[in-house]
Amino acid sequence: MNVLIISPVIIPFTTAIILLLLFKLKSVQRYISLIGSLVSLGISISLLVHTIDSGILSVQIGNWPAPYGITIVSDLFSAIMVVMTALMSLTVNIYSMIDIDTKRIQYGYFPLINILLMGVNGAFLTGDIFNLYVWFEVMLMSSFVLMVLGGERKQMEGAVKYVTLNLISSALFLAGLGILYGEIGTLNMADIAYTLRATADATVTGSTAMLFFIAFGIKAAIFPLFFWLPASYHTPPASVSALFAGLLTKVGVYSLIRSFTLFFVQDATFFHEFMIIIAGFTMLTGVLGAASQFEFRRVLSFHIISQIGYMIMGLGIFTPLAIAGSIFFLIHNMITKTNLFFISGVVYRLKGSYELKKLGGLYASHPWLSIFLVISAFSLAGLPPLSGFWAKFALIKAGLQSQDYPIVFIALFVSMLTLFSMVKIWAEAFWKKQPSQKNDFKSKLSARDYIVMIIPIGMLALLAVAIGIGFEPLMNICMKAASQLLNPELYIQSILGGYPK
Amino acid sequence: MEIIIVILSSFVIAFISPLIYRIFKHLTGWVLSLVPLALFIYFATYLPQICAEECRTFAFVYHWVPSFGIDLSFYLDGIALIFSLIITLIGAFVVLYGGEYLRNHQHINRFFMYIFLFMGSMIGVVLSSNLITIFIFWELTSFSSYLLIGFNNERAESRYAALQALLITGIGGLALLAGFILLGQMGGSYEITELLTRGHLIRAHSFYLPALILILIGAFTKSAQVPFHFWLPSAMEAPTPVSTYLHSATMVKAGVYLLARLNPMLGDTQAWHDIITIAGTLTMLVGALIAVSQTDLKKILAYTTISALGMLMLLVGVGTVLAIKAAMVFLLVHSLYKGGLFMVAGAIDHSAGTRDITRLSGLWRMMPLVTIAAALAAFSMSGFPPLLGFVGKELIYSAKLQAPNASVILLISGIIANAVNVAAAMMTGIRPFWGKTHHAKCKHIHKVHTALWLGPMLMALLGLIFGLIPNLISMPLISPAVSSITGSQVVFNLQTWHGINLVFLFSIITFILGLMFFFSRNRWRKISTYLMFLKPLYPSQIYEKGLHGLLSLAKWQTKVLQNGYQRFYLITIVCFIVLMGGIQLVRLGGLPDSISFAGVKSFEIGLVLLMALAALAAILSKKRIAAVVSLGVLGYGVALIFVLFGAPDLAMTQILIETLTVIIFVLVIYHLPSFKNFSHRGVRIRDAIISVLAGIMMTFFVLLSINLQLAPTISAYYDENSVILAHGRNIVNVILVDFRGLDTMGEITVLAVAAIGVFALLKLKSKDH
Questions:
Q1: Distance from the B688 Cα atom to the nearest Cα atom in chain A, whole angstroms
Q2: A6 CB contacts (<8 Å, ≥6 apart)?
Q3: Residue B766 — very low, low, confident or very high, per pLDDT cuts 50/70/90?
């Protein structure tokens, strides 16, 4: 059992080590990484099943008792995120088989994505706030290298902005950590939660919480801290964008949800209102950004921001339904957003451009790609009964129940604009006739390669349909996860064995 | 269980229709039309059952999302039945017609797919008894409508119209969703059967008005009520079979359906009557008045459809039994004649190559059967006895006469709208066929295929038969529908001929007025050009300006926010940190009361001053090397602080790092040109202020952390157990490699990744470098 909990970190790590040992064998790297991702998926699902069956699981690294050592915890929220990560990893690995050129493989593409996955899983599973910082560093460094890998000029430009702004986040996180440790003298999340609950004048930590909020907020790309995302996500190969879109900002959101449900609950009223305001601005500025773009991946990038707003909205409303809605939104968004980036990459392979003005004619020439795009794009826009509808439904319902009317109005308005820019992609790249003069590109994508690339796209599209139709069981898990988050005594007890009176 | 098969069958057919097309090719229309026909017959077998006693039958529940109270629950009652019959009957004709009409279209297989997707969704809307399920099907009809309006996808106009319809009905859909959720909160359920019993609670609830308005927005956008009507004429970009089916006979009536369905729950309040009646009346008039000035067959039909939808809406708004009765008859009448006339328009377009009424005449020689069908439909539309249209119109007039409020206004506007209907019927159903044939004006006239005239002919004949023997529909079809809308048992018979009375007098006035409209149609067209100065006020213009304005706003805000300047990003983020951190410190009393320097030793002050000076020097120096060296001094200062506070290993690390950094920097800077551009004074002052503020804020945070000791630190444990349990005397080392070994593993990984990164950056260079 103990090994199982830490396995989602160990498996990508081991895979990365094997890949590094076989650094020169470019051709086998793809398959080793693919096998690694399959194993990860199996292990993650089994972890989720165990977590559903037996409640919160935890393990003390090196057997040092909490709060002195590092705790790895799997509650439902963590386990769900780990499964989603494994799913993203599997699809990205399949997609990368074609998308990534041998040059990039030669310089460590596959070890890097495995280390990134290790970092992501570490962040989802850790029960120690400093350890979280370490996983953030692992993610930051590996994502930065993945972003520059290939050395194209625009990659460099994007990556510099990416890394600089994210370093601000790291610095702020570290500063917040130091200050928090100075205040309460512990790093274990359960212990932080315990101590802050047991202390009478803990409200003042609300100021430290703001440092964490901003540090995680930069990672999550909320307003007004999101600049790094639209500046960089459209620069690397599609596989990398897709992986980032599925995972990176979501770790930020995860950390926000985790910290503001588990321990930063002393100044709750203020923070919840603040989050709702931030959520509204994030949704609006993101979606307006998308509406003004005509580059496939830039449209998608701005939409990531906009949808982070919805997840923050759920956290701000802070009812069980709202938190469950945020978690479901995370799941849905990982699936559809990654898929849309995949599709953008295939379109690029077929047409040689990401510019919507230069694209067209795919509706007639590529029916399957068209269907998958329609599913993903309309799911993102919230068309029932696809996954996005339920994500929106849960949050709107939660908002109406708690009478947060302005944010509900904004959420509905933004979903309209989301529909607008998704339809823009569809109408421009698929429905429109191929503008003849603007594009004399000859696609080198062979039929076989096209099929390989479309497999993960089809998988994710089917999943968007499946979790739309089979919404109930998944929502049940999300509701349970939310109830664990909103009753942190379970978490604290399972790690420390006690709870403050 | 049957009901699931009924609904699923359309969806299944939708997905396999491309395969079916592969087998049957040009006969696909004939083959596939058997599906809706079978469904029609199936529904028709319920006619005898859905009578007075058994109001709801055919019920089915599957608990789909029980945690939200969302069930796939369906039942068949009077109103669901009349809609289902219309959907399946016209569906059969449209599939047949479309197969021929689009015979040579490259995506005809996708046409079948979308049409069946729509059919399944539309049946779902009218059979569902759960608000959220209704909503899901409702949105699917909008979605399939989008795909069908844009069916000629390479035309920019089609794509534009499709987007417009999607956005307008989409806005309505979102309002509807919010309204439904509120309704569910008021009534404690999404099940209509349960909500119907709680109508009085809902109407008295404080959410009633907001929920009603939201639901009305949904219904009005879907049913093209003023001011949302403009998407419907634009939607005429769709191929004619689509216009026939979605945009006149079925989908646009979903709004009317919804309000009729919710009538027993939400209806009979002042707001309900007023809003719906006013919107309906306005729509009826606006649609009618624009219709006369049009020359495109389909546009005329579209605007009269808007007018008819307004008529239906206002009857629902009036809400008396008589009005509902009139509405149900008119619903049937309109679907039959308007469906027929649309198909006729398509047949004309198909064989004459134009839909411009000023160029069409004398077509009866070429298409005698179409002429008969068109004439019958036109007479029904005009309300000529003995067609069903006559029955409908007489009922509407008597409903308006007996309306509790504003009956005079309703009557007068009704007479005007009906008179326009007479004129429009002549323009679309009669004028193109009589007179001489202008071969020069419309080329390549060819014969009309059976599939193109069969549907209109049958529908026209139905209009005639029902008109002659209205009791065929009154007892089995209309009465149950009226019963389920009004929520009480109503049994009645319809009559074609009521004798010469006031209502008949209105009919005669209507005909005379209608003929006047028809013969002065050219003048109307001119008058409408005089009204062009009002154009900026047209809702379509407002939509366009609004969309345009929104996009300009989007462009502007994105340029301002995502402007590409890294320094702007940094400034924004730092300012946000200072602002929010500052607010929190002040709000929560985190600022220290006083700062005491007691216990600070003089050499400590000296060291800090030195570091501050180094920092200043780094900022002020105009050479890179000097700046780097100053930073090095600052770093060594930090190392000294570590030494002072008893952390020699940290100090050693710090010194190593600082030394390396300075050396590497110097090596790199050596190759760089010297600074040329310096910031302006103003910019530097601004940056200085921001930096100082950030520094002050962090200082206060640190002071707070020092002053606040909420709990004992865990470090004592390491002190005690480092030797005993971990067998190491250097506690820092033990923490790094044992107590918190996982952190170290992570950090080592970071270094390894950095190494890969450096290697790749140096070796792997892209062509564009």
A1: 18
A2: A59, A61, A72, A125
A3: low
- Omega within 30 of 0 (cis) for the link into B385: no
| A428 found inside a domain | yes
Angle subtended by helix axes A129-148 and A238-262, to nearest 10: 170
| Chain A residues lying within 8 Å of B741, measured CB to CB | 61-62, 70
- Domain presence at residue A13: no
CA atoms within a 13 Å half-sphere pointing along the CA-CB vector of B709:
5
pLDDT in tens, A322-363: 999 999 999 999 999 999 999 999 999 999 999 999 999 999
Q: What per-residue confidence (pLDDT) applies to A365?
A: 93
What's the rounded Cα separation, in Å, for the pair B7 and B124? 6
Contact yes or no for B739 and A165 at CB 8 A = no
Min Cα distance A38 → chain B (Å) is 23
Please provide the DSSP assignment of B373-404 as one string. Answer: HHHHHHHHHHT-TTSHHHHHHHHHHHHHHT-S
- Decide: pTM greater than 0.90: yes
HSE, side-chain direction, 13 A CA sphere, residue B727 = 0
In chain A, the residue whose alpha carbon lies closest to the alpha carbon of B140 is A384
Q: Which residue has the tokens 């002190």?
A: B719
Among A248, A241, A19, A23, residue whose Cα is nearest residue A111: A19
ipTM summary value: 0.95
CA dihedral A185, A186, A189, A191 (to 10 degrees): -90
User: Can you say whether the dihedral through the CA atoms of A423, A429, A430, A432 is positive or negative?
Assistant: positive
Q: Is A419's CB within 8 Å of B768's CB?
A: no
Task: Domain of residue A395: give its range.
Answer: 267-493
- A68 within domain boundaries: no
- Positive or negative, the CA dihedral B650, B652, B654, B657 is negative
| C-alpha pair distances (Å), A245 with each of A304, A305, A330, A369, B544 | 7, 10, 11, 20, 33
CA B178, CA B664: separation in Å to the nearest integer? 61
| Encoded amino acid at B299, one letter | K
Round to whole Å and give the CA distance between A83 and B7: 35
User: Cα(B256)–Cα(B222) distance, rounded to whole angstroms?
Assistant: 9
CA B346, CA B296: separation in Å to the nearest integer? 11
Position A354 in a domain? yes
- Rounded Cα distance, B569 and B585, in Å: 24
